[in-house]
Amino acid sequence: MLNEFKKFAFKGNVLDLAVGVIIGAAFGKIVSSLVTDIMMPIIALVFPSKPDFTNLAWEGIKYGNFIQVSIDFLITAFAIFIFVKAINTAKDKMSKEEADAAAEAPVEVDSKEELLKEIRDLLKK
Predict the structure, then answer these.
(1) Contact at 8 Å (CB) between 50 and 44?
(2) Which DSSP symbol is given to 125?
(3) Which long-range contacts (CB under 8 A, 24 or more apart) does 96-102 make?
(4) How many contiguous H segments (helices) and E segments (strands) does the chain have?
(5) Distance, CA of 35 to CA of 15 (rounded, Å)
(6) Does the pTM of the predicted model rise above 0.90?
(7) From 25, 34, 101, 124, which residue has the greatest number of CB atoms within 10 Å?
């Protein structure tokens, strides 16, 4: 049973998942800081007093917290969107530069390949 657990725990997929969860948690902290420290002060410039919906209720149904959490989610999702879009733009730019560099590089033909082409052409004649 211990050997089976070792096989399971150290499979590539499980380790990849563990690394993904750890990096995801660290990325979550970055996004939270982006929202709290950068985006919220900008929003505070537009709305002098921070809107707070947490105390809204109707007939005992506290829908205000749901509204507040939904707004926080939208702001966080927008921040992630902007972050991922910037990363993808940088990747695309790097890929294009690499493709341009590869297109500009002269194609070297192997001498053996050239000799084989000559033999082929002679045989065709």
Answers:
(1) yes
(2) -
(3) none
(4) 5, 0
(5) 30
(6) no
(7) 34
pLDDT tens for 51-108 read: 777 788 888 888 888 888 888 888 888 888 888 898 888 888 888 877 777 666 666 7
Q: What's the confidence (pLDDT) of residue 107? A: 66
Residues 6 or more apart whose CB falls under 8 angstroms from that of 68 comprise 52, 53, 54
CA dihedral (47, 49, 53, 57) in degrees, to 10, reads -130
Residue 75 amino acid letter: I
For residue 29 the two structure tokens come to 């902290």
Residue 33 vs residues 16, 41, 42, 100, 115: alpha-carbon distances, Å: 26, 12, 13, 37, 63
Per-residue pLDDT at 91: 87
The Cα 52–Cα 34 span in angstroms is 20
Q: For residue 31, is pLDDT > 70?
A: yes
CB 31 within 8 A of CB 83: yes
The torsion angles phi and psi of 61, rounded to 5 degrees, stand at -95, 115
